[in-house]
Amino acid sequence: RVVARGGTRCIGVSASLGFDAALQQIFLGLFTGAALAVPSTRVVRAVDSLIEFWRNSEVDLADATPTLMRMLAAAPASCGLSLPLGTLLVGGEVMRGEDPSRLWSRFGAELEIFNLYGVAECGIDATAHKVGVGDGAEASVPVGESLEHCHVFIADRDGRELPNGATGEVFIGGEAVGAGYPADPVLTQERFLSRE
């Protein structure tokens, strides 16, 4: 739903292959028929090298953390004034309100940015928000609405759903949530709740 655009031709796999985000990048390529561009660890660690790799590989969709977004926005002038990307999926940390506008100011407002939220126990992402110019007015960018395979809500400590705007804990349900930790039944009981 987030990136189901027929135009994605090449996905940049920047996460370590042992990290769950890499699975998202790899399977997205398999499901959409896009090529995968996998840089070396050395390239990923240097933002100028990563931008050059994306440009040379014609990467048009990549995944990043807000920290990488800030590094991209602060990239040296030698990196040029545009990114080859059409879409940037961002997650793993809180996205500050000013992060998208800094990136757009540096590389152009045509870049689509999605803020994603989720945990490994629910198939990586559970929510998505297409970032807009107005999102910069807040301290952080919203994490968005539940993806089709999840039900995300805020609840009190007893698991009772709270109204919109209330403060509580994030609960994720749905077919994407795992069954628990096979080797740790105590932690499974603590973290995985049944709502009958």
In short:
Helices cover 27% and strands 18% of the residues. It is an alpha/beta fold.
List low-confidence stretches: none
The largest beta-sheet arranges its strands as 2-1-3-4-5-6-7
Order of helices and strands, N to C?
EHEHHEHEHEEEEEH
Helix content: 25-40%
What's the shape? globular
**What integer value in Å does the Rg equal?**
18 Å
Determine the strand fraction and express it as a percent band.
Answer: 15-25%
Overall pLDDT level? 88
Task: Give the number of helices.
Answer: 6
Profile the largest sheet.
7 strands, mixed
- Overall strand count: 9
Instruction: Report the span from N to C terminus.
Output: 29 Å
Structural class: alpha/beta
Descriptive account of the structure:
This protein has 196 residues and is of the alpha/beta class. Helices cover 27% and strands 18% of the residues. It has six helices and nine strands, in the order βαβααβαβαβββββα. Strand 1 (10-12), helix 1 and strand 2 (35-37) form a beta-alpha-beta unit. The protein is globular. The two termini are 29 Å apart.
Features:
196 residues, seven-stranded mixed β-sheet, two-stranded antiparallel sheet, alpha/beta, 6 helices
What's the helix and strand layout?
Layout: E1 10-12, H1 20-32, E2 35-37, H2 41-44, H3 47-57, E3 61-64, H4 66-73, E4 87-90, H5 98-107, E5 112-117, E6 127-130, E7 145-146, E8 151-155, E9 169-173, H6 185-191
Parallel strand pairs: 1-2, 1-3, 3-4, 4-5
Antiparallel strand pairs: 5-6, 6-7, 8-9
